[in-house]
Amino acid sequence: MANFNIAIGITLIFEGGYVSNEIDSGGETYKGVSRNRNQDWSGWKNIDLKKSENGFPQNLEDDEDLQSKVYSLYKTNYWDKIRGDDIEDQSIANSIFDFGVNAGIGTSSKLAQTIVGTTPDGIIGPKSLEEINTIDERLFLCKFALGRTERYMSICKNNIKDKLFLFGWIRRTLNFV
Questions:
Q1: Which of 74, 120, 161, 177 could staple 110 via S-S, CB 3.0–4.6 A?
Q2: How far apart are CA 116 and CA 129, in angstroms?
Q3: Using omega within 30 degrees of 0 as the cis cutoff, is the peptide bond preceding 120 cis?
């Protein structure tokens, strides 16, 4: 079975640390957690307190409570939603999880369901899980990477500002093939 700690370790490499980029529609972000989309996340209190201290934002890494909140959010809102503990192949779980973090769990789940031939409702149920666990790993990963790339191209077509992120999104995607 897939392991959350492996998946989150890989995804956090791409998500980085603290960023406040005016161009990013997510606004202020910490390890991929967007303030605009997660306004009620308790980790923002930790971050706001650390802003007035010397060494910000590097000092955030030393806040064990904050790091625990990051892991908890990703476990509950992303990993558990894709039923990561029930996916047999670590690489497939990593890919579905990472795209969920980057593009939304519903988007990632629907893409996975489309690839395995189940109804793309955005909820990984027993049938989707069974198909995910029986599909050839290489076939799934290649099709999933193509689907991710198509999604990113569509985003850039609809919002010219997002072209700034396209190369990074594609590079990130290729790490999961």
A1: 120
A2: 9
A3: no
| Domain tally, the chain | 1
What's the token pair of residue 87?
């996916």
Burial environment of residue 9 by CB neighbours within 10 A (0 to 12, 13 to 18, 19 or more): exposed
List, as one string, the DSSP characters of 48-72: HHHTTSTTTTGGGGG-HHHHHHHHH
Return the number of other C-beta atoms located less than 10 Å from residue 146's C-beta: 14
Over the stretch 119-145, which tens digit does the pLDDT of each residue have?
999 999 999 999 999 999 999 999 999
Half-sphere exposure of 48 (CA within 13 A, CB side): 7
Residue 26 belongs to domain with CATH number? 1.20.141.10
Query: Which segment of 59-73, 86-100, 149-163 scores lowest on mean pLDDT?
Result: 149-163
